[in-house]
Design goal:
- With 197 residues, the chain is mainly α.
- The protein has one domain.
- It contains eight helices and no strands.
- This is TVP38/TMEM64 family membrane protein.
- It is a multi-pass membrane protein.
Amino acid sequence: MYKFWQKTIQVLSILTLIGTAIFLFWLYKIGILNDQNVLSDLIKSQGALGSLSFLAIQIIQVVFPIIPGGVTTVVGFLVFHFWWGFFLNYLGISIGSIILFWLARRYGKKFCLLFMSEDTFYKYESKIDNKRSYEIFFILCMLSPISPADIVVMITGLTSMSYRKFIIITLLCRPFSVVAYSFFWIYGSQWLQQLLG
């Protein structure tokens, strides 16, 4: 049964990536993706429901890391603008990370292997033997916009790190990675367009 769920999630991950690519292409074709105002108006027309829906998506994409979280993070800034977009991204990702940490601690290695290969699991698990070194590694991953944050959160759930320490590190470090990742894609893509255009 476990192997079945492992394969199911792997297939869902692939289907989600394909579906995301198709969805983004469709948004581009109908003018939503390449016109920030159209996308913004679409979500804002939902009122508070739009913000709550986006917040839920951010939590879900962390807890079940088969949805490309980078896409939703950038969309948050584009649609809700900097401060509200930052707040929704930060809150959703932080809540999702805490839930993911709890799930990994509660269900252990088998839960982690639902979302990563054994090679990836053992690669990161080998780092937890040195407690101090791993804590520094964890902090750097939470600060970095390009680290495999969800994987590291799950592995951290298998360590002796307390909930209090995990939550403090997450709340202090996540703002930097959220902003850096979004700015990299938003302004990086604009720079690339200017360079190629």
